[in-house]
Structure formats: C-alpha cells, structure tokens
Amino acid sequence: MKVEFAPLNIPLARRLQTAAVLQWVLSFLLLAQVCIGIIVILIIYNCWFLYVPYMTWLYFDWSTPEQGGRRSKWVRSWTVWKYFKDYFPIHLIKTWDLDPSHNYIFGFHPHGVLVAGAFGNFCTNYSDFEELFPGFTAYLHVLPFWFRCPLFREYLMTSGSVSVSKKSVSHVLSKEEGGNISVIVLGGAEESLDAHPGKFTLFIRQRKGFVKIALTHGASLVPVFSFGENELFKQVNNPEGSWLRTVQEKLQKVMGFALPLFHARGIFQYNFGLMPYRKPIHTVVGRPIPVHQTLHPSPEQIEELHQTYMEELRKLFEAHKRKYGIPEHETLIFK
Questions:
Q1: Structural domain boundaries, residue 304
Q2: Domains contained in the chain, number
Q3: Which of 14, 45, 148, 283 is most deeply packed, by most CB within 10 A?
Q4: Stated pTM of the model
C-alpha cells in the first residue's frame, strides 16, 4: 500500500485545526487515565498536602455532575475549539423555532465513535447554538463513569457536560421558567460499535427511559440527526456474532462503555492513524414533539410517545439525507 503523506505547504490554519482535533482525541483516550495516575503518584509519594484537600473537596462535590455541573464560559471559549469546529467543519442547522419558556430533550443520533458533533455544537461557544436558540442552555449528558475520575471530572464539567443519570436529567428539566435543553446521545456506548461509514443503525427501540422522563416533566422531545458523524472513522470489521463483537459487548456490559477499534488518518500521512477524517458534520435539529406532563405515565403512554418519536426521527432523516449526499435507497435501521 502506497503511503500518502500530507504536503509540506499546509496553511497555518489547517495545522492549528489538526492540532486542536489531536488534543481532543487524546483527551478522550488518555486524559482520564493520566488524571488517575497523577492521584496515584501523589498518594505513593505521600504528597498528602495535595491529595487530601482535593479528595476532601471531592467528597462534598460528588453530586455536582447530577446538579447541573459547573460549566466555564472561559474554557468553552478557548480558541482551540474554534479550530476544532473548523477542522471537519461542524454545522448546526435549525428547522423549527423553540419556545424558551419550555424545557426540551434533544435526542442526538447517531453516537458515532467519539460524538464529535454533539461536543462541537453543545460544549463550545463557537457553534451557532446561541444564535439559533437564544435564551437556551444546553447540557450534554455523558456516562456517569467519567465523573468518577478525579481531576478529569473537573475538566469535563467545564464544557457543560453533566451525568446522564435519571437524577441529572430530571434536574435539568426541572427549571420552572424553562430554557434548558438536555442533549442525550440515545444510542449510547452500544451504538458506537455499529458506527461504520455508510451505516445508519440506531439503537433506539429499547431506549424508553428518556420518554418517561419527558412525560414526567412535560418536556418536548426533539429528534436530532448528525449527518456525517459515522464518516469520521473506520472500524475493524465487527459484525454481530463475530468473536470481536462478542468481546466488545461483554466489555461494554462490565465497564459501561464500549471499545470500538477505530482508525482513520495520521497527522503527517492520510493512510492510517487516530485522527478523524476531514468530513463535514451537519447536525440537524428537527421539529419538537409536544409532550403533556404526566407524573405517572402508563406503559401505553410511554410506548405511544416512543413510536411517535421514532417516526419523527425517520421523517427528519428522509427529509434531509439527499442534501448531505446520502443515496435515496438508504434508510435508518432501528434496533
């Protein structure tokens, strides 16, 4: 195989974009482990004056990720996120006006490998979110596991990320004056194992918890589809039933998160590496589904709203797929 190297005369802006995405990928893959390692080293070398105050503070701060987190406008405005957004680039498209006196749940699809679209649009101040949805605050819900990692949890919360636990989602949707948006990647870790280019498989049929919470709080449901999300990386072939997929699914059940064996391009060559491909991401926000508050919804009410949500999600995909180069015969597969 002939290796295709990056040209030497790359503009500075593109170099900065590559550097921004590299640090983002590394932060996902290594930063949590590095932060845990720092705490372990402090304990081994008995630097109690550093780790004891932090661990004490951590004890009292443990529930913050379930109480709205601790976002930082300064961190969200780092210039590195501008270059991150422009690398792909990432676009946010609104199809319907939302009422800032209400709260909403954005169901984000698909998960992809590293959820670049959700992070770029809802965790930085360089997307068009504030312009398109004035008066709203978006909270990206992620696995609770990441908030159990000391030090890393502080960095993660600065982006506006919070836990995806029921308590956390309920906290966001409980704002009486409205204006809050819970962004939930509904397919979760399991869906990332099917994040192959050209595939549109969504794990949604058994995901009904978000519907119950929407009914309980009277929060409107909004389907969101991020075109291009699955095109950023390739994965080692892992069809259902294969030994690799079996191992991945067992690890996912034990650890709570999946381990897709992904690859794309490198920093100085385009053939292999962990850098995502430069593929545009278009995150399209669909039409809100009104939800009447029902404190104790029945299974029939949950099922009915769940079916309505899947129908609206499919309509959203069908209405916009041709704009973003998806063949007419391609359709969503719900699992």
A1: 12-334
A2: 1
A3: 283
A4: 0.94
